[in-house]
Automatic annotation (TrEMBL):
Database matches in Gene3D superfamilies: Winged helix-like DNA-binding domain superfamily/Winged helix DNA-binding domain (1.10.10.10)
Xref: InterPro entries: HTH_MarR-typ, WH-like_DNA-bd_sf, WH_DNA-bd_sf
UniProt name for this protein: HTH marR-type domain-containing protein
Residues in HTH marR-type domain copies: 7-136
Keyword presence, DNA-binding: yes
Alphabetically ordered keywords of this record: DNA-binding, Transcription, Transcription regulation
Highest taxon in the source lineage: Bacteria
Signal peptide range in chain numbering: none
PANTHER family to which the protein is assigned, alphabetical: TRANSCRIPTIONAL REGULATOR, MARR (PTHR42756), TRANSCRIPTIONAL REPRESSOR OF EMRAB OPERON (PTHR42756:SF1)
Keyword Membrane applies: no
Amino acid sequence: MSEETSEDRFFREFGAAHAELRQAFARHVGMSPLRVQLLVRLRRDGEISHSNLRQALGIDGATVTRLVKEFEAEGLVGRRLDPGDNRYTLAALTASGERMANDLARSHQSYQERLLDGVSTHEQEVVLRVLRRVRANVTEQESR
């Protein structure tokens, strides 16, 4: 087997960090990552169709419906037919859902601050520049 290159190490570490970060906060708050993502999306976007949630979260329609119905049963989300097109269902946070989503946002901010403990602002900016460059390179490669 060939020796691992610096590129291999970079993307292996990047991938592992990404995977860990996606799961860590959800574990921290005792929720599934999808439930966290759905609450965050509803907090950010307000009332939104199931179809748009499906696209935004990259999950199938049945999963969106199940999650929204679970939140509805918990009193966190309300649903209604889209008055402009009754083929679509809209979902929005209730007052309880807003409080929970706001608490989640505050908890997330605090969690992020703890994760960056010992990482200087300069180091964060260097990482951001590298990530922006990699993303630009991806776009450039895909346009060829």
